[in-house]
Recover the amino acids of this structure.
């Protein structure tokens, strides 16, 4: 388990792995109900409940009668403030909280336990993937970072997921209020309440007619298609918005590939935090290995989804690709011959001494391990593991990569 400075722990933790990731515990009130929430430097708004969430919940308490509702959805739940506050105030509601970030889901589950809100369901999703499931109330503090097209698509999917008399309530930063307003209008929605400040805009809206949404929930995220070449091997990929390296392969991936050449054979492969999927796709295109199975693991479902799509498009059978959506190394299962790690470093968390022992838990006897990161992080790993048997090490444009067994 990674170590961190001692945080204020409000109660016994449901998941002890989360403790080093807690930045603080804060008090919060919603419609006369007192709550507490753990926050993290690894998630949005790490020092207090953000102003957008506060504004959204205030307007819900003042303008929406939830007494007759049965099912509610919190999209992009983060630490779970919106869904948990709603459930605590209206215990009869069935509440589902979704997010693409597995760390957000872990914090939501921990905060639900902290506030003794039984029955909160968490699920990893990109926006709303399943419009067939209907809700009385859908709430979202829409992340600005998702991009214009996914934002507009999310509004449409909110309306398509409503029960006949259901209502959506969302908040966005003021710069994106026109995108949301236009998406509501385009998809036959009716705004029943609107409040704006210089920083945020809240919309409450209903569906006047069935919203038209694509059967492919992934489509709005796609940015383009590109052909990449590394070491004379060409491979095609689809890239997505809101992830780096969408038009060129990044230096971190290039560094990993430079040391992978000496990794040897292996037919069970694991890629941790694979990004757009450059390294997995090159590994398939290069054809020096007979690959039986590939696992893609990490906290970001967008990374895992686009990497899987690219592997399938490259000819890998979908049944031989596994996704493990987890924020913790301990959440990864299986045994692997080649492990490629692009670490996700959270500020303030001391991860160095736990990284290699964690990886070795799912390493086969003949495993080759590639670790690629900013050179500062590689230096910290080597300081923590002075006896690590390095087979190859390279530096490349601010990044370093290690190959070890």
């Amino acid at each position: 388990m990674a170590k961190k400075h001692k945080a204020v722990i409000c109660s016994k933790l449901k998941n002890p792995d989360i403790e080093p990731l807690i930045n603080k515990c804060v008090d919060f009130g919603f419609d006369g109900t007192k709550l507490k929430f753990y926050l993290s430097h690894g998630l949005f708004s790490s020092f207090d409940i953000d102003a957008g969430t506060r504004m959204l919940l205030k307007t819900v308490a003042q303008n929406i009668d939830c007494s007759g509702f049965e099912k509610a959805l919190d999209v992009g739940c983060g630490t779970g403030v919106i869904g948990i506050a709603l459930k605590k105030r209206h215990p009869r509601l069935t509440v589902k909280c979704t997010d693409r970030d597995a760390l957000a889901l872990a914090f939501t589950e921990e905060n639900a336990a902290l506030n003794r809100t039984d029955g909160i369901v968490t699920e990893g999703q990109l926006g709303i993937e399943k419009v067939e499931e209907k809700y009385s109330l859908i709430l979202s503090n829409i992340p600005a970072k998702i991009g214009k097209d996914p934002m507009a698509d999310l509004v449409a999917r909110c309306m398509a997921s409503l029960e006949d008399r259901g209502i959506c309530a969302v908040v966005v930063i003021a710069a994106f209020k026109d995108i949301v307003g236009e998406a509501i209008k385009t998809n036959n929605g009716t705004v029943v309440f609107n409040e704006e400040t210089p920083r945020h805009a809240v919309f409450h809206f209903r569906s006047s007619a069935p919203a038209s949404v694509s059967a492919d929930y992934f489509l709005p995220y796609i940015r383009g298609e590109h052909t990449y070449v590394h070491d004379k091997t060409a491979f095609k990929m689809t890239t997505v918005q809101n992830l780096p390296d969408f038009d060129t392969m990044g230096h971190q991936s290039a560094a990993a590939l430079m040391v992978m050449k000496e990794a040897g054979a292996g037919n069970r492969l694991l890629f941790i935090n694979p990004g757009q999927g450059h390294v997995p796709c090159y590994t398939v295109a290069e054809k020096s290995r007979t690959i039986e199975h590939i696992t893609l693991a990490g906290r970001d479902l967008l990374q895992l989804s686009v990497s899987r799509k690219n592997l399938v498009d490259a000819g890998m059978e979908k049944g031989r690709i596994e996704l493990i959506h987890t924020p913790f190394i301990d959440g990864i299962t299986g045994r692997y011959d080649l492990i490629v790690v692009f670490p996700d470093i959270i500020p303030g968390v001391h991860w160095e001494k736990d990284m290699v022992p964690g990886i070795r838990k799912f390493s086969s006897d003949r495993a080759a391990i590639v670790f690629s990161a900013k050179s500062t992080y590689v230096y910290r790993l080597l300081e923590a593991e002075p006896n690590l048997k390095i087979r190859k090490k390279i530096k490349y444009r601010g990044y370093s990569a290690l190959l070890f067994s």
